[in-house]
Amino acid sequence: MRLGERTWTELDDPAPRTVLLPVGSLEQHGPHLP
To answer: Which of 7, 8, 17, 29 could disulfide-pair with 33, CB 3.0 to 4.6 Å?
Structure first.
């Protein structure tokens, strides 16, 4: 879903069907990299 292409009425849905999961690593590099 591209938020920049959505209108405010589409984003103002009282029952959203999309879940945003912030995923990322805890460390910038693993033990195999310097």
So the answer is: 29
